[in-house]
Amino acid sequence: MIDFSRDGDIWTATLNRPEKANSLTHEMLVSLAEFMEDAQAARAVILTGQGKVFSAGADLDEARAGLATSDIWERLSGAIAALPGLSICAMNGTLAGGAMGMALASDLRIAVPTAKFFYPVMKLGFLPQPSDPARMSALIGPARTKLILMGGQKITADEALLFGLIDRIVEPDTLLETARHIAADTVAATPEIAVGIKAMCTPQSGASDAPLR
Q1: CATH code (residue 172)
Q2: CA-CA distance, 44 to 46, in Å (whole number)?
Q3: Which of 47, 106, 132, 180 is the most buried (most CB within 10 A)?
Q4: Domain limits at 94?
């Protein structure tokens, strides 16, 4: 249900459960977390999916059985955020629910024009994963974060680009090629320089740099 590959210094994880809209089971989340935890040697990590949906979030049956409130989501997003290399979430389609955490924890987010973004956690009677609101607010501001989390709004790719939730809109047939092209300079650079630049771009704990909107 997940394909893992390594091409030199670029590691790629591909969600491959298109018949279920790439909804995530506990087993899939553990596999992704372990992959990200093992990717400390990778210069760049790309996370993408097969089919027309990047991920619909938690598998519904498993969500009802407790997956929606499992700490595995935080383990995964924390592992992505801790990667020393460049992380790129290349979304082949719509992103929903708890799967949002994977994208928010990535350094860069690119998406196809048909992608939509929503996080209907409040409607389902759950809180968001603990780190997601702060990461989203840092990208798009608190008001737009509330628009998504409390207003229940579905955001189009164009709106997401305008908000700053994604960094580029890319046609489906060039999505992975674009992600690899973006990663190329990081892969070619001296590792210490690339890691140092990423550290300099990461907000320090306690600092407030969320945009005022």
Answers
A1: 3.90.226.10
A2: 7
A3: 47
A4: 2-201
